[in-house]
User: Fold CxC2-like cysteine cluster KDZ transposase-associated domain-containing protein from Obba rivulosa.
Amino acid sequence: MTIVHEHGVDSVRFHFCGCITTTGQMMESEAIQFLSCDLFPRSWKEPRTVFTLGVLRQFHLLSMQANVNGHDFYAYLQRTTDNVRADHVLDRYREFLTGMWEFAFLRTVKRAGCEPGRNIGSGALAVWCPACPQPDKNMDPNWSDRPIHEQFLDALFHTIDSNFHQNMKDKSSDPDDFPLTCGAAYFADENDFKVFQTYIGPLKPEPSTCNKFEAMGYGTYRGKVSGTVGVICARHMFVLPGGGVDLQKGERFTNVDFALLLALQPWMGLHIHVAGYDIACMCTIRKTLFPWTLPAIGKFHLPAHIPSCCYKFSYHYLPGVGITDGEAPERIWPAINALATRTREMSAGHRHDVINDYHSDHNVRRTHGLARKLSKKYEEALEQKVSAQEWCSILVPVLTVKEASLEMLRLHGPQQPGLVGLIEEGIEIEELQYVHPLRAVTSGIDYKSIDDTSKDMQDRKTAYQTRLETWALRYESVLGNALREAVDAVAANHISMGYDDTFLYAMMLENEETVLEQVHLSDLEESEVESGSETLDAMVGEKRKSTKEHGLGAEVTTSRVELPSKYAAPILRHSTLKAAVDVERQLCESQAGNMLRELRTELILKYSLLKAKAQGSGVTAHTRTNVRIHRKQKTIDRAAWRYRHARRALLALGMDANDRRFHELMDEDKRAFVMDTNDERLGDSRKAPSWIWEDITFVETDETEKGLPDAMRVHWFRQCTTANRWKEQVLLLEVEMRRTCRFFRHYQQRWLDNAHEHEARSNARRAAYARRQAFRYTRLLEGCKERFPAKCFVA
Assistant:
């Protein structure tokens, strides 16, 4: 007798017992005697090879966890027996495969509490999802009475997808071969499917109303079976029973319909189904045969569809779906693809049994970790819900400077236009002074007359100084008296407290920036000059040289613009300057908003240039693109500086440093959001974008002003849908945690009842196994109690 054990292969002599049993029956068969000794016979009539249960369990676990195949494992046993002449070890590879097939099936029926046989029952050997709605097992007693707006809480989220790695070679096999788990696990009943195939027409590509995907039969497929299609729980990654079907050529709608028809039988009484499918846009015609179904396309596959599909079938926008991406099959298939190297060589029946066994192992592992997964998702959902709602609450458009001026004129009445115009012009002059000192003296120069450049720039400087002096006179006439009154009042107050004029002077310079982040001469906006012309480039160089020689930029920079924000806080708090402070603050808010708009626009343009560079080729094209990217970066840096300058003025005018509209702009905040699906990374949907994208009014231009309200509504809609999805996610997870507890409690009681029945029949072995299974669910319930919130744990 050959015995295969954990340490190799050996030949051992056996002597069978010939005694009569205690019940008076004849002696037990050889196979039964082997089983009583923890040995599994290859044959049930005249066994000549047996396997220890330990070696079978070892290979079964290794094949599930590490995808070890039978050939390699038996070679390992041979080398364990004799590592020098392994070829002399008895070859029982064929017997090992057959014995393992039977052993795996018997373990499956034992764990399911069923008797082995040919007609076990649909889904009886499958491991069901504890968190999905299971009528009569884990649903709320009053689930059918929920109002319409809450019915999504009891919906079944499923998705169907094909795996073309799970194919089978076109080779001859045993015509009498059949799967031991026929119709009882994750594949639809094979006999019913054979009958169904006789009624479908010849194979041909399905008509496409979207892009012609290869999965629809437009690709090339080989083999007797081109792949499999399966129905998966979209939220918890469980393989649903009865939804597996072999494919002959692409994802034919008839095969998909058959899989859905059989897989969804237990859930036909639910109010809502959320059905995910990679090509859901083209197979919704059959959905009328099912309960009210909400079709959706997985987030990963959505960009491959035409634009209309991206909005009608997106998990982002469909109500009641929570944070579901619909890509659960894509996470299961990679793990099972390694199994395909074995299953494609098997017979049809053996292949289905092995795949079913792997799916059960996958579902068992998901069951054991479900409490941890749900609790982790719940904590994340609570956090993301608050964050998303905050984003919706701060989507307030920022007025432009002109809009702010008109609004202030409307609010303050006819006596304020002089003040508004005065401070508005002061801000413009200060912007020229600090940000673009050269523009004040170079704007409008005709570069065709290079020889006159210096004279023209001198004239511009004189005009700028005249404008500044004129503004200073207006400033004195409008705010001079109020400013002196405020200064005198503050000075008198501080002198009475023992301070001298030196202290007062230091206070008045409190808000003056001691170090100005001057924009370098090379940062002059290149857009003012057409690129690509050597003549113009030479003129720009000559202009810079002339500017340096005359020092006109330095003269402009040293000019002082006495805006209210330049004075100390005690002076600004005086009642006589309240109107001026309010006006400058509103104008600075508009200026800061405008700079954020410009920053966003330039970031998007730079992103587009980077994408164009990646798609282009050639040194000349890359050089030209690099120049444009460099210019955009300078524009981004200037916009950031101008925003920071406006924010410093706002802080001096009394704005809270934690104002939600105008955060401190850090260098890491100057980044574009992901606009191309190719740039998305796992987890991006859970990361908040940079705070600068909280407002999208930056899209406003003269040409698009009429479309601005629509753009704002779209942005508001997207952010609010995200907030609603996270709100739904919290509610769905709470219901799923309760269903999980009820599911574990249901099966705990079921196995306890089973144990009582076997004890009543004096079958101690089966009763012990049933209690062991009941204790398994007891442990799972303890895990739920430890991790779930008290309101979500059902005792």
User: Anything to note?
Assistant: Confidence is low (pLDDT under 50) at residues 411-416, 444-451, 510-550, 701-708. The longest strand covers residues 156-163.
